[in-house]
Design a protein that fits this description.
Layout lengths: L1 H8 L8 H18 L14 H29 L6 H30 L5 H54 L14 E6 L5 E5 L4 E4 L3 H7 L5 E5 L2 E4 L3 E8 L2 E6 L13 E2 L4 H8 L7
Antiparallel strand pairs: 1-2, 1-5, 2-3, 4-5, 6-7, 7-8
Helix pairs in contact: 1-5, 2-3, 3-4, 3-5, 4-5
Length: 290
């Protein structure tokens, strides 16, 4: 899930498509040259001066592609689609289409002045610019599709992983006994939240498994009276407690029975002050106080 969040927020590694950018630039440069001549798409290769013209067009196309790439990466980090997609689309239109179109026009005029053919500037805006503008729009659409495909790919992989863990968890709940009869599910000793919002369930026999449900949803599904949420990160079973010690006003430290006493940190074994009153009521008249 962390990879998906990083991708959505734009803090992941940038697009790895350098070979694709080279190929796209080369194809675009060749098409522009063939479009502005009377020769066909493949016949233009045999015309004298084709290679020199192709190099100039390729450099311009490569700069355009790279400009769209850099604008997209910058906006992925500063204005990701997941935060505000309307604002991002406006920024992408201004930066990825309009600004790059101005850059493309400036590069074309510089090229025509360098080769001493200023008369081609009028033909550029009359014939070539609409095609280049469509090319720039397609580039932006390409990176938007690339982004969505990466997100969907990670989401599907995460979904399959969750389904696999769910099947493994369901298979562990009922284990056939030696005589072929079904045994009852293992009793959960506590459920604790780990880093990155993952959850772990520890059984009474000290075995553990990945848990797929949040603390809030788990406590509502567990048997009432047997389990209690001592703090936002931990649910415990009443049978796991060896003794309870009051450390401050409505804050209690729990010592667990062996071998469960080695699996929770000191912070995880503290009853939060907001849960203190309900915790005392849950313990009732059991002789667990030190």
């Amino acid at each position: 899930m962390e990879k998906i969040l990083n991708l959505i927020k734009g803090i992941n590694k940038p697009y790895r498509d350098f070979p694709a950018r080279i190929i796209i630039s080369l194809c675009a440069a060749h098409y522009i040259l063939s479009h502005t001549t009377e020769y066909g798409l493949f016949e233009v290769v045999l015309v004298n001066g084709y290679t020199i013209s192709l190099i100039g067009s390729f450099i311009i196309a490569l700069i355009i592609v790279y400009a769209v790439f850099k604008v997209t990466v910058m906006l992925d980090r500063r204005v990701p689609y997941a935060v505000n997609w309307r604002k991002r689309c406006v920024y992408q239109l201004v930066g990825g289409v309009l600004a790059v179109s101005v850059l493309a026009s400036g590069l074309a005029m510089v090229l025509f002045l360098l080769i001493k053919e200023p008369q081609r500037i009028w033909r550029y805006f009359n014939q070539d610019f609409p095609i280049i503008l469509a090319f720039i729009i397609c580039l932006n659409a390409y990176y938007y599709s690339y982004y969505n495909i990466r997100v969907m790919k990670l989401l599907w992989s995460q979904l399959f992983l969750v389904m696999k863990r769910y099947r493994m968890q369901a298979a562990k709940e009922f284990v056939p006994a030696d005589n072929g009869a079904e045994q009852l599910p293992k009793k959960i000793a506590f459920i604790v939240r780990m880093r990155h919002r993952s959850y772990l369930a520890r059984h009474m026999d000290a075995t553990s498994e990945q848990w797929l449900t949040s603390i809030r949803d788990s406590i509502s599904a567990l048997p009432k009276g047997e389990y209690f949420t001592i703090n936002p990160t931990c649910i415990i079973h009443i049978d796991t407690i060896q003794k309870i010690e009051e450390i401050s006003s409505r804050r209690y430290k729990i010592t667990f029975k062996a071998p469960l006493n080695t699996f929770l940190t000191e912070e995880q074994a503290i009853v939060s002050q907001s849960n203190g009153k309900a915790f005392v009521k849950w313990i009732g008249d059991r002789e667990l106080w030190s």
